[in-house]
Amino acid sequence: MAERIAFLGLGVMGAPMAGHLVKAGYDVTVCNRTAAKADRFVATHGGHRAATPAEAVRGARFVMACVGNDADVRQVALGHEGAFAAMDRGAVFVDHTTTSAVLARELAASAQKTGLGFVDAPVSGGQSGAEGGTLTVMAGGEPAHFAAARPVIDAYARFVKLLGPAGSGQLAKMVNQICIAGLVEALAEGLHFARAVGLDAAAVVDVIAHGAARSWQMENRAATMLEGRFDFGFAVDWMRKDLGYAQDEARRQGAALPVTALVDQLYAEVQAMGGGRWDTSSLIARLTRRSAPGT
After folding, report:
1. Of 135, 101, 133, 134, the residue nearest 120 (C-alpha)
2. 69 near 38, Cβ under 8 Å?
3. What is the extent of the structural domain holding 98?
4. Which among 165, 183, 198 is the end of a domain?
5. Which terminus of the chain has fewer Cβ atoms in its 10 Å neighbourhood, N or C?
């Protein structure tokens, strides 16, 4: 019989990730706060749906979660009809949500007390990476729990690495978001400057993308930034949530993040322009003061 997997959360990331598990031959039971999404998933991909996390995880050796924030994860794991109380002893909970490291350590301790495994495993690669099964996964937890869950994670990931004990995956994701924030603002300013001085910005990108300025953001977002298209990808609201976790952790550790703090406030300006659900590359919109098409 196929191994049973539970997947909690069917948003733009979770749904394609769970879909890859079905394709890989796992017996997948899904649960989502909006039941209609779970119904659509089963109709499209197969598998089963459950009304609550507790119902979804019964008999599952691995439980994967990808929800919204700390409060959402705490609810599906520890809340009424939550996963932890219903999981079999020895089962492993893998949290793909980007959360605080504080929560990851809290859940790891709670899991240990009840004989469960826990791995914090936030992802990078966005919606396209989830759909293509090419996500990068940065993990924290006990090596044995990580090793057991690794074959499941491989169904939707291109690169997976254990970085240390519980919380390490979330800390690594903070590093990822800090780097992205600075890169996107620099790219936005570069493109804005190119236009201001009368250059063909697209032609400039074609040149500098072959040199030291090259980045994933430049290759994948420069063209759409110049077009003013932001109706896709990772939303500003979620980036501000992630940068908030990073800044909270930095304050606890006494680490200065001046550029991160600045870019976070620039994203607040984008939110004030009505761009909370725009892609993070929309930082250029506050420089041009042009609304995205259709907004």
Report:
1. 101
2. no
3. 4-165
4. 165
5. N
User: Can you give the pLDDT at residue 233?
Assistant: 83
Closest CA to 98 of 273, 235, 219, 218: 235
Cα separation, 32 vs 170, whole angstroms: 23
Rounded-to-integer distance, Cα 279 and Cα 34, Å: 23
148: amino acid identity, one letter: A
What six digits make up the tokens of 107? 């859940």
Longest CA pairwise span in the chain (Å): 65
Task: Tell me the one-letter amino acid at 16.
Answer: P
Q: What is the set of active-site residues?
A: 173
The pLDDT of residue 290 is above 90: no
Q: What is the CATH number for 95?
A: 3.40.50.720
CB 278 within 8 A of CB 292: yes
8 Å CB contact between 195 and 240: no
Q: Which residue has the tokens 């890169």?
A: 183
Rounded Cα distance, 197 and 208, in Å? 16
Q: Confidence class of residue 293 from pLDDT cuts 50, 70 and 90?
A: very low
In a domain, 295, yes or no: no
pLDDT tens track for 22-34: 999 999 999 999 9
If you count them, how many residues does the chain have? 295
